[in-house]
Design goal:
Layout (H helix, E strand, L loop, with lengths): L29 H28 L4 H26 L4 H29 L11 H27 L4 H5 L1
Length: about 170
């Protein structure tokens, strides 16, 4: 995925409100929250699906497969922010700190929702990569996670937390 056009100006391509005061509650828009959530979800989805594919292909049990998927979701989720911030000229140490601050809550909420849906969907935990239910549960979980995480990101950005740290 090419982020070069997305990341002009600020680390995630979102602009701060007029007046140059950063992103505050009164300047936080749903569009900004949705962009931040979609950006985070993209990294999470890549890691989550890769982990599920690897664990399922290796015939691992549910717990080991989900642990790998969640770990990779965090790795890919953080890396999308990390690379964007470093590309914007921030040092690696500062970029890592910003990525952790920006994405930890967002990824955690997404993973809790997504994996909760997969765990609760009848039969989804027992599917294989070739089963439609495997993919429907994944995609449905991502869709619900996006809907639930967007207000969380809006709330955090409005309080100068999460993705607001990256935008500063």
């Amino acid at each position: 995925m090419d982020h070069s056009t997305q990341h002009s100006g600020t680390a995630h391509g979102h602009s701060a409100p007029a007046g140059g005061h950063g992103t505050h509650a009164h300047g936080t828009t749903w569009a900004t929250a949705m962009k931040a959530t979609l950006h985070c979800l993209t990294g999470c989805a890549i890691g989550e699906i890769l982990g599920m594919v690897i664990g399922t292909a290796l015939l691992w049990g549910n717990v080991a497969t989900m642990a790998l998927a969640i770990t990779l979701a965090f790795v890919f989720g953080y890396s999308f922010t990390l690379f964007a911030v470093v590309r914007a000229g921030v040092s690696l140490k500062t970029a890592l700190k910003d990525a952790l601050a920006a994405d930890t809550v967002s990824i955690a909420v997404m993973e809790l929702v997504d994996n909760g849906i997969i765990a609760l969907a009848p039969g989804a935990m027992d599917t294989h990569l070739s089963d439609g239910l495997f993919w429907y549960a994944q995609l449905g979980g991502f869709a619900v996670a996006f809907v639930i995480t967007t207000p969380v990101n809006k709330w955090m950005i409005g309080r100068g937390k999460g993705h607001a740290v990256v935008h500063a």
